[in-house]
Structures are given as C-alpha cells and as structure tokens.
Specification:
This protein is α+β, with helices and mostly antiparallel strands and 496 residues long. Helix content is 28%, strand content 33%. It folds into 2 domains: 4-199 and 269-360, 2-Layer Sandwich (Nucleotidyltransferase, domain 5), CATH 3.30.420.40; 366-495, Substrate Binding Domain Of DNAk, Chain A, domain 1 (Sandwich), CATH 2.60.34.10. It has 11 helices and 27 strands. The strands form 7 sheets. Strands 1, 2, 3, 4, 10 and 11 form a 6-stranded mixed sheet that branches. Helix 2 crosses helix 3, helix 4 crosses helix 10 and helix 5 packs across helix 6. The longest helix has 20 residues, at 88-107.
Length: 496
C-alpha cells in the first residue's frame, strides 16, 4: 500500500498523519505511543535527539538543546547546542528525519508527503521548510498553509455537508493564523488569510513565567531562576489554569497562587493583537460577519477560555472542534498529499476518499518590481510597481511590459519586492531579490522589457525579465535570501 503523509511541523509540537487502507486520514503515534511529538532537539552522548526525551534533557538550558527554531526559519539566526552551531533549517531537518523514521516504523515507507507552514510565513521561510524536508530524505513536492489544511479536514469530515463561509482559527505553540474560507462540499477556497508568526502558546508561557517570578519575588524576596521554575513548568501551569480558574505552583517549598484572571491580564496585549488580526481578515474577505456559518479551531492554544471568548466576540459564533485540535492540521495535510499525487499509487478506496477534494489558495502579499516613474514635482523617481496583488487565486501568472529609460542603457535591475499593502514607495517595501540583466549597447530608449511573475502552488515566486528585441532574459526561481536594497543608478531600473 502507498503511504501519503501529512506533517504538521509545529513550533512546539509536531504531528503526523497518513491515509490508511480504508481511505481515512489517521494520526501516526510516535514511539511513545503519543499523538504529538515535541519540536525540541538536544545533544545526548554526542548524538542529536528529538522529541520528549530531548525536551526533558533540554529543560530550559539553551546550552543543551534548542526549541522554537521554527520562528527563525528563513533567517541567518543560529542555535547553539553543546558548543555547536545549527541553523533553523538543520534543526527542523533533524525533527523531520526523526518523524520520518518513527512513521516508517509504524506504517512502512512513505510514498509522498506534505509539510504544513503558517499562512503568513515569508517566502524565505517557505523555502527553508522545503529544504529541511529534503535534508531529512522526504519526498515533498508541496507545502500547504496550516489553516487551509485544517479547513480541508473539516470539509472532508463533514462528508460534503458544509456550504458557506467559515473561519479557521489556528493558534498553536508559536504561531497564529486565521483564514476565512468558502466551502462547498469538499471544495475549499481561501478568501483571506493573515497571521502572526511569533505569537502563540510559547509567548503565553513566557508571560506566565514572568507573572510567577513577580509573585515569587514579593513573597520570598528572591529572584526566580529557570532552574527553579523552567519554561516547561510554566507550560504545565498554563495548562492547569486553562482547565480551572486557579492553580498553585511549588517552588523550593514556596507556594505561588495563580488565578486565570491574573494570567489573562498578563497576556492582554497579545490577545488584542489576535482580535485585531481577526477583524482585519474579516474585512479583507469582504463578507459580513453574519455570513459566517461556523468557526473551526486548530492548535493547542485554542483550548484557552479567553481565546474562545475572543473568537466568539469577533465572529459572533461559538467556535467548534469536532476533532483533537492538535491533530487537525496533520490530518488535512495527508489528504492534500494524496489529492496532489498523480493517483497511480492510490488504491481505489483511497482514490474515492479524496476524489471530491478541491483546494484554492490565495496569495498572502503584494509582489512588485522597482520601476522609474515621473512626476511634475520630482521628475524621474523610483516607484514600486505591483504585478501580483494580495488575494489572487493560486497558481497565478502575470506579464507586464516596461521600457528602458535612456539611450544606450546597458542593463536593468531585476528587482522583486514584497509588501503587505499596495505600497508604491520603494522605501517601504521588502526587497526579496535583486540582480542585473545586461542589455545590448547603442540602442535608443524605450526598449520593451517583458516582466513575468508566476506564483505556484507552494507559494513560491518565479520571475523572468526579458529584453524583447534581443531575447536576453533573466529567469529567477527564488531561494529567498532577504537581501536589502542596494544603492543603484536610476538608469538601471525600468520605467513604465
């Protein structure tokens, strides 16, 4: 039997699911018979270890291990373990490799897999995620946004009964995503999506730790250390106060009482960000809140009562979860893996299970290029020209013509920009790639340059800058490097 696997590569915990012989998505338990695995890497006897043992070995000592490195994906940040430096991509690869080994021990060789990412992940982070999977030896052709994967499973679980606009609210250990989706049967279309890739349960843990430290200082007169009360202890206390209104933690034979109200006040600014992001996403979907049929939950932090209250406040619906919120993203991802396959390795039962699935993602940012414009007050000036708008259906492709500025111009700067708004001022956009295309000399001005942007199903950018007359072309499949804009002669940019 062919095994199509979905991996929810979370900030604090991971989950794996596959399509079983009956065509149903199922969670693959790890070697401890648990449905989730901590996203922690530690060093033990010269070997890197992953999971619960690594979490306990690490404790809160960054010298022994690393956690929450997902937040650094696509950056140059590194993590030190026992004097050795590891990139976030390498650490993620170590986690994925362990998940692969444990999954294959349970179900056999993996045919194809899909890895999930936060909806607001940068292109650098998306690329790094794909690279980590390849380093781990996985056959990964696609990635999928976490809330979209969750929506896909909820649609599947309804057996075609869903019809209307829905919210997927995904608050995990390290990231927050919210998406408005349109569902008709098992046809899922994303209308809008936003998120915060550095806000989640781990931040709530830190706030609770600080609250405990403050109360401990008042009661004992001593400063609290992470050896006395680790971040793992803070997470356990958070889970306790989620289930009851009050809890007590013991520190060195001292007792610190905590109330849920105190904890909620300590995270009020983060909760306000979540609420604002929900409102923004609803506005971008261009639908009225009364059109929302239901709100689906994903991610362990959605268990918090205050979070569910915010959801109900914004969307006027009590959130629902018909599955374990820790599992729903992985379950949807394995459906997507089977859905995106060519079907040749699927059994007839498996084919029947996913043959009605349809997924339509949308772009999560504006993509443009730096051109030269003209105004009466400033004359020639650089501007950001938008080619692909946020909210376009994926995959998409756009071609625009631009023209050289001066006679004898020998080159252009092929610049790709990213922004969250339709910003025209180059100073306020992110330069995600920049290189030069040489042009033949001794030509008049206004030579046509054809620029094509394509946004694929992995939400990766492919671009070409082509000099129409000579045929000279610069083709870019971006491994996003996040370069800053360099100073350049205005003549080397394009003009509309």
């Amino acid at each position: 039997m062919s095994n199509y696997v979905g991996i929810d590569l979370g900030t604090t915990f991971c989950a794996v699911a596959y399509i079983d012989e009956t065509g149903r998505p199922q969670i693959v338990n790890n070697d401890r018979d648990q449905n989730i695995t901590p996203s922690v890497v530690a060093k033990h006897k010269d070997n890197l270890i992953v999971g619960e043992f690594a979490r306990k070995h690490w404790g809160n000592d960054d010298r022994k291990g690393a956690a929450r490195f997902k937040r650094d994906m696509g950056t140059s940040n590194s993590h030190q373990i026992d004097g050795n430096s590891y990139s976030p991509t390498e650490l993620s690869a170590a986690v994925v490799k362990e998940l692969k080994i444990q999954t294959e021990n349970r179900i056999g060789p993996i045919t194809e897999s899909v890895v999930t990412i936060p909806a607001n992940f940068s292109n650098e982070a998306r690329d790094a995620t794909m690279e980590s999977a390849k380093m781990a030896g996985l056959n990964v052709k696609y990635i999928i946004n976490e809330p979209t994967a969750a929506a896909l499973y909820y649609a599947y679980q309804s057996d075609g009964d869903l019809s209307g606009s829905y919210v997927v609210f995904d608050l995990g250990g390290g990231t927050f995503d919210v998406s408005i989706i349109k569902v008709s049967g098992q046809d899922v279309e994303v209308l809008s999506s936003n998120g915060l890739h550095k806000l989640g349960g781990a931040d709530f843990d830190e706030a609770l730790w600080s609250l405990v430290a403050e109360k401990y200082k008042k009661e004992s007169g001593e400063d609290l250390t992470t050896e006395e009360f680790s971040m793992n202890d803070a997470e356990d206390a958070k889970k306790s106060i989620t289930e009851r209104k009050k809890t007590t933690v013991e520190i060195e034979r001292e007792f610190v009482d905590l109330s849920r109200i105190e904890f909620e006040e300590s995270i009020s600014s983060m909760l306000a960000q979540i609420e604002m992001m929900c409102e923004t996403t609803l506005d971008e979907a261009e639908i009225d809140v009364s059109d929302i049929s239901d709100v689906f939950l994903a991610g362990g932090s959605t268990r918090m009562p205050i979070v569910q209250q915010i959801v109900e406040k914004v969307f006027h619906k009590k959130p629902i979860s018909t599955v374990n919120v820790d599992e729903v993203v992985a379950l949807g991802a394995c459906l997507y893996a089977a859905h995106k396959s060519d079907g040749s390795d699927l059994s007839e039962i498996q084919k029947k299970s996913i043959d009605q699935l349809k997924v339509a993602e949308r772009t999560n940012c504006f993509l443009g290029t730096i051109t030269v414009g003209y105004s009466e007050s400033k004359g020639q000036t650089l501007m950001n020209s938008i080619l692909i708008k946020k909210g376009e259906s994926i995959p998409c492709k756009v071609t625009e013509s631009y023209f050289t500025v001066h006679e004898g111009q020998t080159g252009i700067d092929c610049t790709i920009t990213e922004s969250k708004s339709p910003e025209t001022n180059p100073r306020f956009v992110k330069i995600i790639h920049q290189e030069s295309l040489e042009l033949p000399s001794d030509r008049p001005s206004e030579q046509e340059i054809e620029v094509t942007y394509a946004y694929d199903e992995n939400q990766m950018i492919h671009a070409s800058f082509k000099d129409v007359e000579s045929g000279n072309e610069k083709t870019i499949s971006i491994s996003m490097s996040g370069q800053n804009q360099t100073s350049s002669d205005i003549d080397k940019f394009l003009v509309e």
